[in-house]
Amino acid sequence: MKLKQLLSELSFVENIILDTSFIHFAYENDVFDLINLEELCKEFKNLIIIKSMSKDFGIAGIRVGYGVMSEDKVSTLLENGYLWNTSGIGEYFLRLYARESFFAEYNELRKDYIHKTQTFFLALAQIEQIKVYPSLANFALIELLDGSLSEDFVAKMLIKYGIYMRTCRDKIGLNGEFVRVASRKFEENEIMIEAIKDCFKG
User: Fold this and answer.
1) What is the distance between the alpha carbons of residues 70 and 165, in angstroms, rounded to a whole number?
2) Which of 50, 69, 107, 144 could form a disulfide with 73 if both were Cys (CB 3.0 to 4.6 A apart)?
3) pLDDT tens by residue, 10-34
4) Separation CA 4–CA 64 (nearest Å)
5) Parallel/antiparallel/unpaired status of strands 16-19 and 47-52
């Protein structure tokens, strides 16, 4: 694993923080098995894994997440009073998340969503006026190749088709016209594909 090699080479760093908020959308085999990096905290004591749960569970309003780290780092946090109280709704969700039956059902839905998302990205890649960059998240970076400005394209998609996309003008390192589009339900993805095709017709 390249990550383990990297962590080994960075053993001199006091704290390495790894954000895994999108990791449930990632996979390393054809059956979309879940990637679990939390065991690495036992081997690398300087590693801190954090995860927002709003991305894959759609619970942004609850503001729930968690961190995994060595026992020594947990003790240091507790000694300094770094406890963050959760709301009643947040606590309810965490108890639900801890149930084996809930997670098993979620994992099947997660795999189905990944399959539909990758199918969506492949369909987008067939549109000749855009370039779709590979993604293991639930959104794709798209480069506009027909000379359109990203702001104009985003505005047209919203006004004419009622579809919201995000321009990537504020992203450092991108040279060109880029937008970001998120995968949704299969039927909504189909509508989006047809709208993008129609948008380029004029």
Assistant:
1) 40
2) 69
3) 999 999 999 998 888 888 888 888 8
4) 28
5) parallel
Q: Which two tokens stand for residue 70?
A: 């060595």
Strand order in the sheet with 16-19: 16-19, 47-52, 65-68
pTM higher than the cut 0.85: no
Q: Are 178 and 143 in contact (CB under 8 A)?
A: yes
Rounded-to-integer distance, Cα 201 and Cα 48, Å = 49
Which residues are CB-contacts of 27 (< 8 A; sequence separation ≥ 6)?
33, 34, 35, 114, 136
Task: Identify the sign of the CA torsion 74, 76, 78, 83.
Answer: negative
Residue of 76, 66, 17, 62 whose CA lies nearest to 44: 17
Domains by residue range for the chain, with CATH = 1-98 (3.40.640.10), 112-200 (3.90.1150.10)
Query: Model confidence over 147-161: pLDDT tens digits?
Result: 999 999 999 999 999
